[in-house]
Amino acid sequence: MSATSHESLAALSGSLLGISTLVIALRYITRRRQKAELGADDWLMLPCLAFFIGWMAVVFVGIHNKVLGYPQPTNPKVLIASQKLAVELYMSINILSTATFGLIKLSALFFYIRIFSPNRMRTPFKTITIVTAVVVALWASAFIILLPLQCGSHFSMLWSPNKVVRAKYCWRADTELQAWVISDVILDAWIISLPIPKV
User: pLDDT tens for residues 137-180?
Assistant: First the structure.
């Protein structure tokens, strides 16, 4: 898929949204047919889906306004005019994706507790999993809060098309993005490896 292909971006976003909705619906149908009690891992999927729907809605708004999936405008006036919307869309995507990924991680951790520590007894595995869940919640909260505060109290600077002025009041967003990506990969690797000793 090309980074400037709005058709591909729309197709991918629509497909992911449809598949995610179907899988979560099937999860609830399966629990009902099995007469199994819904757990925290199941309930966390509802706000997760809501955030994901919001994320995909933002993508479609960007496509509709020719900000996402289109080449960057060469006309400076058009570029400046679209800059504020582009920053708003990217910030919204970052916040919604962080919330979505955080809830997916939490759901996986509570699923581990359901499978490997079904009783109320405190085991080392359950303790480690709960501590990991707290770390994930703090991780998601920190990045959701930090993003809008990257310019401190100068919120209008977030939308400024002037990079020099923005650099004066805001820290570098790419540094935060790198920290987000690296910490996300580390958390994913840790969460995936957690149940290996239990298998």
Answer: 999 999 998 887 877 777 777 766 667 777 777 776 667 788 88
Q: Are 188 and 105 in contact (CB under 8 A)?
A: yes
Calculate ∠ Cα 33-36-41, nearest 5°: 115
Q: Is the dihedral of CA 118, 120, 121, 123 positive or negative?
A: positive
Cα separation values, 167 from 60, 154, 170, Å = 29, 12, 5
4, 57, 59, 100, 101 from 12: Cα distances, Å: 13, 13, 11, 17, 18
DSSP state, residue 99: H
Q: CB-side exposure of 67: number of CA atoms within 13 Å?
A: 18
- Note the pTM of the prediction, 2 decimals: 0.85
Q: Cβ contacts of residue 83 below 8 Å, gap of 6+?
A: 159, 161
